[in-house]
UniProtKB/TrEMBL annotation:
Residue numbers of the full-length protein present here: 322 to 612 of 612
Full protein name: Response regulator receiver modulated diguanylate cyclase/phosphodiesterase
Domain named EAL: residues: 24-278
Amino acid sequence: QQGGNKYKLHTLSLDMIVSDNSNNISLETDLHYALKRQELELYYQPKISLKTGKIAGVEALIRWNHPKLGLIAPNKFISIAEASSLIEPLGEWVLETACKQTKIWHQAGFNFLSVAVNLSGRQFKQLDLFHRLTKIIFDSTLEPEFLELELTEQILVDNVKRNIQRLNFIKKLGIKISLDDFGTGYSSLGYLQQFPFDIIKINQCFVENIDRNSKNAIIAKSIIEMAHQLELKVVAEGIETEAELEFLAKDQCDEVQGNLLSRPLPVKEFSKLLLKNQDFTIVNPESIAAY
Ligand code: C2E
Ligand code: MG
Ligand code: MG
Ligand code: MG
């Protein structure tokens, strides 16, 4: 009897493994066609300047409109793409689309707008990344200083010397470098001054309940102060409440991004948001209540 149970348990877990695998395999197969079938879409989330209260930039975030499964979030398929080298054409499509769209917004008069694009590890390590970026900038005619590449620490730790060199090459093109999810990785503060970052993004986990969580408040405040001493711009991610926003404004954070201000939006909706840009009036903490 006991043996039977064991066997059952075994087949059950094996089943789970098998079905999980086949799910991934079919997602991977589908992802191969997703680009050609135009199922991928960029959503745009604004970054609001706390000095002007207006949109200063935008982050491009990929979505997959799967014909059967509906809208799929990047966390569900970027790792699959990354594991199968699909990430290269996919990442290139993201860069091209984001740069071309931003140029369109510039031509429509919003020529202050910067666009941030997330880069995966494999993309960053592509030997011809520099040439690909050059081509994308050339084809889109977007001035390179309006493009920011967001990288996480995990991508940069494996070969620090070489990675610093690569970043410096990219920066020679005029492109800005942003450290995404700061505080979630190996985060030695010494990193900040080793790498040629322009911007750091404080991860949501330090922003959450910052008004009530005194540890988060201390961490966020020190990150902002230190970053400013190193002449980096600071963006806080994942702002969900007015109290969090007020706190970050008081601490002199430069820009904020989060669902409180706007969720990531499809291109048309983001264009509408740009048109009524004056809606974000957060010039000083006192005015936040009104907003
Ligand atoms: P990320 O770069 O840190 O992007 C921020 C994530 O936080 C986005 O999730 C965004 O929708 C979400 N977010 C924004 N405001 C709030 C908020 O107020 N509350 C909460 N809970 N979440 C908020 P998303 O779009 O699902 O993307 C997840 C991650 O997938 C991104 O994290 C990024 O690492 C990756 N990713 C997205 N697009 C791309 C892409 O085109 N290429 C690559 N390589 N990675 C991408
Ligand atoms: Mg990002
Ligand atoms: Mg992030
Ligand atoms: Mg992330």
